[in-house]
Amino acid sequence: RKEVEQDPGPFNVPEGATVAFNCTYSNSASQSFFWYRQDCRKEPKLLMSVYSSGNEDGRFTAQLNRASQYISLLIRDSKLSDSATYLCVVNADNNAGNMLTFGGGTRLMVKP
Amino acid sequence: DGGITQSPKYLFRKEGQNVTLSCEQNLNHDAMYWYRQDPGQGLRLIYYSQIVNDFQKGDIAEGYSVSREKKESFPLTVTSAQKNPTAFYLCASSTWGYYGYTFGSGTRLTVV
């Protein structure tokens, strides 16, 4: 079983749609969770951290379910510019807390 | 502005040559990482370093070497032993604790 699993997609949605991505992780000791965005042929960039209580940043909402070891990202009112690959990221169980494990990514394509 | 710089952006290697990819950061981060990404694939960890003069192998270290003589610098050498080096190479850095990574803009290596 992969440590961080995501549906690779692609998710093809029209502009203005709401889309949700899910991610599961295997390490129950994980303490920190992130969503990164990667545009084609570019480096990944931090989109948002994911907190236990859930958190929102504009059109983006992230949720964490520790019991099910499951993270989600909801994008409302999709824009063409949201087209990218979204990486679910979880910290590995190391003392420093700073080793991260990356999921394979979910590709989103927003169409006019 | 603080950041992480990779150079060159594009690199061409002849069969049998060693090449060195540069990664420099001025974020005062303790940890640095090298990843490889093949087209349509996820990130794979090559090497990482949590502290100066110390580094660890990642999942795909064979055919690669690194050094960490300064906190700011973590160069990666792709040796002739790496049989399929054509890929996108990403360097990242992080501080201690449960924070995300900052990535450089990457080096695209092609064997000619």
Explain what the structure shows.
The complex is a heterodimer of chains A (112) and B (112). Chain A has strands spanning 4-6, 11-14, 19-25, 33-38, 44-50, 55-57, 60-65, 70-75, 84-91, 100-102, 106-111. Chain A is mainly β and 112 residues long. In chain A, strands 2, 4, 5, 9, 10 and 11 form a six-stranded mixed beta sheet that branches. In chain A, strand 6 (55-57) and strand 7 (60-65) form a beta hairpin. Chain A is globular, with a radius of gyration of 14 Å. The model of chain A has no long low-confidence stretch (mean pLDDT 93). In chain B, strands 2, 4, 5, 6, 9, 10 and 11 form a seven-stranded mixed beta sheet that branches. Chain B has a four-stranded antiparallel beta sheet with strand order 1-3-8-7, with no helix packed on it. In chain B, a hairpin with a 5-residue loop joins strand 4 and strand 5. The mean pLDDT of chain B is 94. The radius of gyration of chain B is 13 Å and the shape is globular. Chain B contains no helices and eleven strands. Helix content of chain B is 0%, strand content 50%. The N and C termini of chain B lie far apart (36 Å). Chain B has strands at 4-7, 10-13, 19-25, 31-37, 43-51, 54-57, 64-66, 76-78, 87-94, 102-103, 107-111. The interface between A and B is medium-sized, with 23 and 22 residues.
Q: What's the pLDDT, averaged over the residues of chain B?
A: 94
Helicity range of the residues of chain B? Answer: under 10%
Task: Work out the number of β strands of chain B.
Answer: 11
Q: What count of helical segments of chain B does DSSP give?
A: 0
Give the strand content of chain A: over 45%
How much of the sequence lies in strands of chain B comes to over 45%
Please report the distance between the alpha carbons of the first and last residues of chain A: 37 Å
Please write the string of helix (H) and strand (E) elements of chain B: EEEEEEEEEEE
- Oligomer status: heterodimer
Give me the count of strands of chain A. Answer: 11
Average pLDDT of chain A, rounded to a whole number, is 93
N-end to C-end Cα span of chain B:
36 Å
Poorly predicted residue ranges of chain B: none
Largest sheet, strands/sense/barrel of chain B: 7 strands, mixed
C-alpha geometry of chain A: globular
Greatest contact between two chains: A-B, 23 and 22 residues
Percent of residues in helices of chain A? under 10%
Based on CA atoms alone, the radius of gyration of chain A comes out at 14 Å
Question: What best-fitting shape of chain B do the alpha-carbon axes yield?
Answer: globular
Structural class of chain A: mainly beta
The tally of helices of chain A reads 0
